[in-house]
Amino acid sequence: MSAPFDLELGPPSAELLEVARQELRETPEVRAAAIEELRKLLHATSDLNFPDDDEFLLFYLRPSHFYVESALKLMRNVAEFQKSYHDLLHNLMPADLKNEITNYNLVTVLTNRDQKGRRMVVVRMGDVWDPKAVHEDKIFGILYTIHKLAIMEPATQINGIVVIYDFAGLGMKQVKGMSPSGTKRLLAFIQEAAPVRMKAVHFVNEPMLFNMVWALMKPFVKEKLKNRMYFHGEDRKKLHKHIDADCLPPSYGGTLSELTYGSKEWYPAMEKYNDAIKKFNSAGFK
Question: Is the pTM here over 0.85, yes or no?
Answer without folding.
Answer: yes
